[in-house]
Amino acid sequence: MAITRKDVLHLAELSNLRLSEDQIEPLIKDLDNIVGYISQLDELDTDGVEPTYQCFDMQNVWREDVIEEFEANREDLLNLTVESEDHQIKVPKVL
Amino acid sequence: MIIADKNTKAVGLVRAALDKAKEYEDYHCFISMNEARALDRAREIDERIAKGEKVGRLAGVPYAIKDNYLSPEGVTTAASRMLDNFPSPITATAVAKLEAEGAIMIGRANLDSYAHGSSTENSYFGPTLNARDKERVAGGSSGGSAAAVALGIVPFALGSDTGGSIRQPASYNGVWGMKPTYGTVSRYGVVAMASSLDTMGCIANNAEDVDLIMSIIAGKDPKDSTTLDDFWTRELEDAKPKKKTIGIIKDFLKDGVDPEVSKTVLSYANKMKKAGYEVEEISMPIMKYGLAIYYIIQPAEVASNLSRYDGIRYGHRAAEITDLDSIYGKTRDEGFMPENKRRIMVGNFVLSSGFFDAYYLKAQKARTLLINAYNEAFEKYDALLCAVAPAPAFKLGEKTDDPLQMYMEDMMSVLANLAGLPAVAIPAGESESGLPIGVQLIGPRKSDQVLLNIAKNVEENA
Amino acid sequence: MSKSDYKMTIGIECHVQLNTKTKLFSAVDNDAVDKEPNSCVSPIDYALPGMLPVLNKAAIEKCVRAGLAMNCKINLVSRFDRKHYYYPDLPKGYQISQMYQPIIGAGEVHLPDGSSVKIDHAHLEEDAAKLTHFGNYSLVDLNRVGTPLLEIVTDLPGMSSAAQARLYCEELHRLMIYAGVTNGDLYQGNMRFDVNVSVSKTDKLGTRTETKNLNSFRSVERMIEYESARQISVLEKGGEIIQETRGWNDATGKTTAQRNKENAQDYRYMPEPDVPPVVLEQSYVDKVEANMPMMPDEYRSKFGVLNLDNSEREAILNYPILAKRLNEVLDKGGVQLAPRVAHWFSGVLLAEENLDKDFTLATANELTELSEMVEKKELSSTGAKAILMEMYDRKNTQKTPHQLAKEMNLLQENDEDALGVIIDEVLTAPECAKAAEDVRNGEMKAIGFLVGQVMKKSKGKANPATVNELIKKKLS
Fold first, then answer.
1. Fold of B10-237
2. Does the annotation mark B165 as catalytic?
């Protein structure tokens, strides 16, 4: 399939990227090339093949239900944010 | 690799490394140095040695970390504007293990932003130059790590390999690069790129050093549910191959591969014969789809893993934010490099409703076919041989305008990641213009040490 | 046209917060009640770079218990997936959930009214952060991030009335409490309901609207009544229903269309590469099943012999410990003694203003003994009720009902000789002469006065029935 300007704008929204106009044109070309290339998988017959999501045979990797200490505490973490108030992270009004 | 002892002072080793780093500053191997703390640690280690204490297997050995490994000293940037103000409170498991053995981190090596790239040109802080030719790229994404080792600044450096990011720069700079079996080294504390493909490994000067470093950083980590039980436990000499048979992947000797590179692969094959290995060509048609499979699965996981970078809890936040949408939209537009954005958008394309089955699911099925092909081959061969990259290091700027051309760099290296297999990049020769060319040995899961044993054996007996 | 021409179809997604000690994927305190903002947050919940989820085994067992409580199939193989959306309540930019292979499969929940509701599946996922909104900004508290949530999704035909939907929610709440998988505090948001409503005059389903985050049974019922009426009036006016997410306002009792991208949302589900699949042995599931307590349904059928009315029975079933006690009393004392205890529970204990009592205090033996004392006329029913309340007082845990009766001076006098003495006194007393005479002449209604006098003299300890008989004898 060919990637259009509309597709790029849609993908930018899905990706939460506010792209300046000058970025859009090159992206249409680049994404179209890339999608064109990966589309060659159509040639491959994969009927009845199970997908591989994780290339290892591990299962049931879990921990006991016990509270542990971590390297970073609340202050260490909140110090990383631009704005906090009352031990909470401050963001512009969420509608 | 020189280890500190009563006669060889750690301070001396670290000082020498720091001086070399300055001497080669123009190569831009490092994003930031860790000078003061490194020297403090060196002194402390010298004191402990003087007291006769047991310091560890890497006492006083200076090393570099790729700047996507979290460590509380300084700032972990992942070569991005998004994290250029991120002082990590966390220490990556691999780093903690090395420091516990007395190794001393002297600086953070350059990389393509978020490890997206094959030349280190996608770094927010500018590219790293090739150790052999300043006109050329160091490769990527672990370009800084590879060049730093090749230039002799440090005896080893940590890297990460999602589709060739350790092996390709190692091969471009003429050093060894180890991409271990998926799950060998904990991913805890390393900025995630593509979770089902990411592997942590090292770049060094010879098989013994690689083996020692990997034996230290390998092992199960309760903080990473995908780590394997520690299998890196043998002496290198004991990890001998059973069959002594090697398959050359025929499909990678012609189309798209530089004749000089193919020549090097074949000459390495001859070395292997001399060393007593049975070498024959094997055709694996599925391999030509590897890159397409990779550039569906990897961007999908990249898009997902980069969703957390929103300017809210840490990292860059765009100025003059008025509403929530602009916190996300502007921050991510400013914080990511063009290649980051391309991968995020391709990833969201293959995952989006209507395309998931045709692309993502299809690729995961093709991945199964790829793994089956490998399993079949390994019934006959101890390891498979092919080049790491289709050509020697290219000129700076040569491929920056054409992302797809840049992707082609990975056509042979992504395969091991898709199947979770170990692969070691070995310096195998030079082009006529004197550029290093590397080959890689790919083996069954957990055969990492066997691959190193074979490579060492070939070097000694040919 | 009237409401009755329309068939209502209701589907419910219920989010149950599991009461594990630690969160689903990080080993921090999962109980944030009365704790400071962001005090139950690890680098994993904060979504620092390079952090990885580590599954909490206890959450899996609680899911299995919940599934069995709902008579659902337990899927031996389940996996996690990432659900992507951008919102400040979601630090990773995705929620780890189960889109393709949930841990709990299809089943059926039986309601007290005999009807039942089909369950499509239930999946395990992470809860999101709490946002508090102020003038031009909002604050983010991540304490709730990563709390294990079990999302229970009903299947068609769904429910057909607001009342049935409420019954379902109430029963689901009971089942989760009995299974011990949640604290069940609705005020704390331990259970939250997303409700789909549609109406139609034909067998073809109408367009549905979804109203999210209802946190009381009553609001579920009221919302459905309002929303179905709204949809019908829209259709009657020739309009059409828009598929949308609506918000419920408890104060106005109305739902309103919500401005949100939800409807256009593309979650881009992707298998979670950081968490290996969960593969359970049937033998493990059997073991969990063997350790399940009795469920409300089993109690209901067993309590049939007690002939309680539904409201009384359900009131008791709301307290697993009372249902357990009543069941034990039934086993010890049979239908002779158990119904009285049931009435005490519903009529006395639960009629209390503040239910801050520890219902575990009174043992089955004590309750049976108390009921037996009334049966044997050793206690008046008023006396018994007084003792019952004392039995739920910590200071009395060591005392038997009999000891309490003694202390409180409530044991009834049945000894005929002792009573005889008092009765003779009464009959010979001048003020009673008239009444006694009347009784002798067969005017039996006068006997009440005499019995009253005896009761007064005996300070209420005499058993009125016995007294009545004795007086008759003496005066015949």
1. Amidase signature (AS) enzymes (3.90.1300)
2. yes
Q: Say if A37 falls within a structural domain.
A: yes
Rounded Cα distance, C294 and C69, in Å = 10
B262 pLDDT tier (thresholds 50, 70, 90) = very high
Question: Does some domain include residue C150?
Answer: yes
pLDDT tier at C466, thresholds 50, 70, 90: confident
**DSSP code for B310:** S
What mean pLDDT value characterizes chain B? 97
Question: What is the average pLDDT score of chain A?
Answer: 94
In a domain, C251, yes or no: yes
Question: What is the amino acid identity at position A18?
Answer: R
Domain assignment present for residue A93? The answer is no
Token digits for B352?
């989006």
Token pair in block for residue A34: 């890339």
> Which amino acid is present at C40?
C
Confidence of residue C417 (pLDDT cuts 50, 70, 90): confident
C311, C429: one domain: no
Strands B245-249 and B383-387: parallel
Residues C267 and C352 in one domain: no
Assess contact for B228 and B199: CB atoms under 8 A: no
Domain limits at C94? 3-283
Q: Are residues C371 and C438 in the same domain?
A: no
Contact C32, C39 (CB under 8 A): yes
Q: Looking at chain B, how many residues does it have?
A: 462
Our answer to whether residue B196 is catalytic in this structure is: no
Question: Of B317, B333, B365, which has the smallest distance from its Cβ to A46's Cβ?
Answer: B365
Residue with tokens 């921050």, as numbered in its chain:
B331
Which chains share 3+ C-beta pairs under 8 angstroms with B? A, C
Domain definitions of chain B by residue range: 10-237
* Residues whose CB falls within 8 Å of the CB of residue B181, separated by 6 or more in sequence, listed in order: B199, B228, B420, B421, B422, B445, B446, B447, B448
The per-residue pLDDT of chain C, averaged, comes to 92
Side chain identity, residue C366: E
CA atoms of C105 and C115, how far apart (whole Å) = 20
ipTM: 0.96
Contact between B172 and B127 under an 8 Å Cβ cutoff? The reply is no
Kindly list the strands in the beta sheet with C130-133, ordered across the sheet, starting from the edge strand earlier in the chain: A84-85, A88-92, C137-141, C130-133
| Cα nearest neighbour of C83 on chain B | B304
All residues of chain C having their beta carbon less than 8 Å from the beta carbon of residue A92 are 136-138
Nearest to C189 by CA among C212, C210, C209: C212
B141 is catalytic: yes
Residue C264 has pLDDT above 70, yes or no: no
- The whole domain housing A12 covers 5-43
The amino acid at C315: A
- A90 at interface of C, judged by CB pairs closer than 8 A: yes
How far apart (Å, rounded) are the C-alpha atoms in residues C96 and B437? Answer: 43
CATH number, residue A11 = 1.10.20
Region C195-200: mean pLDDT is 97
pTM: 0.92
Report the domain count for chain C. 3
pLDDT at residue number C3: 66
Q: What is the per-residue pLDDT for C352? A: 81
Q: Is the pLDDT of residue B52 over 80?
A: yes
Whether the Cβ atoms of residue B199 and residue B179 lie closer than 8 Å to each other? yes
In 3D, which of B339, B303, B306 has the Cα closest to residue B119? B339
Same domain for C203 and C334, yes or no, is no
Q: What pLDDT score was predicted for residue C259?
A: 67
pLDDT band at C261 (very low <50, low <70, confident <90, very high): low
A44–B420 C-beta distance less than 8 A: no
Least confident window among C51-60, C249-258, C413-422:
C413-422
Across the range A89-93, mean pLDDT stands at: 91
Q: Using alpha carbons, select from B429, B185, C347, B445 the residue that is nearest to residue A56.
A: B445
pLDDT category, B334, cuts 50, 70, 90?
Answer: very high
For residues C23 and C156, state if they share a domain: yes
Give chain B's end-to-end CA distance (angstroms, integer): 23
